[in-house]
Amino acid sequence: MATTYTYKAFGLTIQSEIELPELPLAIGSVDVNVSLGITPNTLENPLFIGVRFLTKHNEFLLKVDQIANYYVTGGNQITIELMPDVDFADVRLFLLGSAFGALIHQRGLLPFHGSSVNIDNSGVIFSGHSGAGKSTIAAALNKKGYPILSDDVSVISLMNNEMPFVVSGYPQMKLWADSIAKLGDEPSQYGIIRKRVEKYIIPIDKSFHEELLPLKNIFIIVPSNLGELKVESLKGVEKFNLLKYHTYRFNFIAGQEMQANHFRYLTTISKHVNVWRMTRPSKKFMFDEMINLILESVR
Amino acid sequence: MDDFKKIVWLASYPKSGNTWFRVFLSNLLNKSDQPADINNLYTTPIASSRELFDEATGLSSSELTSEEIDLLRPQVYEFISRTSSELQYQKVHDAWQITKAGEPMFSDNITKCVIYFIRNPLDVAVSFSNHLSKPHEDIAKILADKSFAFSSNPNRFHLQFRQRLLSWSDHIHSWVDESGLPILVVRYEDMKENTFETFKRAVNFLGLVASDEDIRKAIRFSDIKEMQKQESQSGFSEKPTKADSFFRKGEIGSWRSELAPELVDSICKDHREMMIRFGYLDDKGFPI
User: Fold this and answer.
1) What is the least distance, in Å, from the CA of A98 to any CA of chain B?
2) Which tens digits make up the pLDDT trace of A179-197?
3) Which of A46, A76, A106 is the last residue of a domain?
4) Range of A189's domain?
5) Facing residue for A64 by CB, picked from B59, B159, B240
6) Inter-chain contact A130–B50, Cβ cutoff 8 Å?
7) Sign of the CA dihedral B161, B77, A241, B227?
8) What is the pLDDT of residue B153?
9) pLDDT tens digits for A19-74?
């Protein structure tokens, strides 16, 4: 029996054969196993064929060239087949991103592409395209004392009473050097996520929220070269479509059962959560103005 | 087999009429009585956009190196072609190229055809200088730089992938001579001076069914004045942050008053062969 480590992330207790220093240690009954082994070469009769992944009901296979293959099953098992001479930082990056994204979909939860913050004991998610500033605005709020719930991917859970909650992720953020500098910090004190990718790992030592919180607001951040800052409340079909569009790894949702569950999530969130489009000038981050506008909108 | 060829590449060196054609095409395909919204064009995003890639691969491109992204791009275009029910019009500024794995980045297997836009490099220099907010001297060097690439600084995030443009002449050579793809070369100057005939030729090449009246209407709706009006009212999402405007003058021959004679000479010298071939220099090497 190999040595294992037990951690907590995304509201799950995870037992892993590889060390995951990003995650806080935990005890308790295990929800998910991460083990090293041989992954299938392919999946027979897949429901969806992506460029580097295949999906079936409760089965998912991702191949990251030169790094590892990830085989995710039943919402509770991730098997990793390592490629030769691999850097473990790379293995963990795609494990905690895409592989856990697939696992969360299999568990019938909704991974949403965005970073989340605790404002007045409610969850607020910041979403948008790559480069919109999801993590940066969350980090700016964190500097003002608002605890981080999750970075990059925020897991939404509909509890028994059918109300959406944001589940805490793990205490780390990933930021580009220019974002760190804009926040008044020095990038070189942090480690990079991978060799030759100059995105930095910022551990969140304090001010991390470890429990789930009711989800009340989602901001879709849209940089605009017109230079204006504004917030609009979204309604109806547009609101629903944006929630669908910003679902993390939408193509990992395989088959009717998962699709029906996803639809149930989107309609319930549409009903109970305010969704805003925040247009910000692409030239510069107006942190104070943005934060004021966010607080005005959610309060 | 040809059913699988769903991608039409709208390829060009920057500032050569590509966006004008995309606005025209959106208007033609929309069949609306209103000009198409320049911020909501019918054509799909630029081939170097991240969203398409991330959806197709299941990976975050912001966590991959430019080299890893380049290796996956041919498979992403294969994915787009395989999963699309309609033709996909993709704007592309990359030169046509072979990846390190030996595959063409823009393969014949998924390509219906290419429209390649070309413009007098002397006018490209003036327009590109405004676009990049760089002096004319720097642009003349960029036009001649055989290893020039967009979005190539690895220390910061780029909205688009690294795009290898190569030099202006090599860019043309890569698409027109090396790619082996079915291609129609469209000169910007012909779009300006023989607008109807030039656009009609492109429509016929794409195999689109459109009446002369449809084409004339789409040309009216994509007039530079209409695009300038829309940009002044609601901006243009594809404008670089530093540039004052994207739709500037669009004139032919503005280099005559704006470009220093020594830069005219050096651009004509650097690109002599291609400029003669596409009618921008006479056979004695003088600008036309």
Assistant:
1) 6
2) 999 999 999 999 999 988 8
3) A106
4) 110-298
5) B59
6) yes
7) positive
8) 73
9) 999 999 999 999 999 999 999 999 999 999 999 999 999 999 999 999 999 999 99
Residue A50 to residue B58, Cβ atoms within 8 A: yes
Residues A155 and A261 in one domain: yes
- Mutate which of B40, B60, B156, B238 to disrupt the A interface (most A C-beta within 10 Å)? B60
Cβ distance of A283 and B241 shorter than 8 Å:
yes
Domain chopping of chain B, boundaries: 2-277
Q: How many residues can be counted in chain B? A: 288
Confidence check on the interface: ipTM exceeds 0.85, yes or no? yes
Confidence at residue B160, expressed as pLDDT on a 0 to 100 scale: 82
Boundary (domain end) residue, out of A106, A130, A149: A106
Residue B110 near residue B78, CB atoms below 8 Å: yes
The CATH number of the domain holding residue A189 is 3.40.50.300
The reply to whether A158 and A62 lie within a common domain is: no
In CATH, the number for domain B2-277 is 3.40.50.300
Task: Nearest by CB to A177, from B75, B79, B155: name it.
Answer: B155
Whether A143 and A94 map to the same domain: the answer is no
A130 and B157: CB-CB below 8 Å?
A: yes
Low-confidence ranges of chain B (pLDDT < 70): 1-2, 42-48, 154-156
For residue A52, the chain B residues in CB contact (below 8 A) are 57-59, 72, 75
Q: Do the Cβ atoms of B234 and A178 come within 8 Å?
A: no
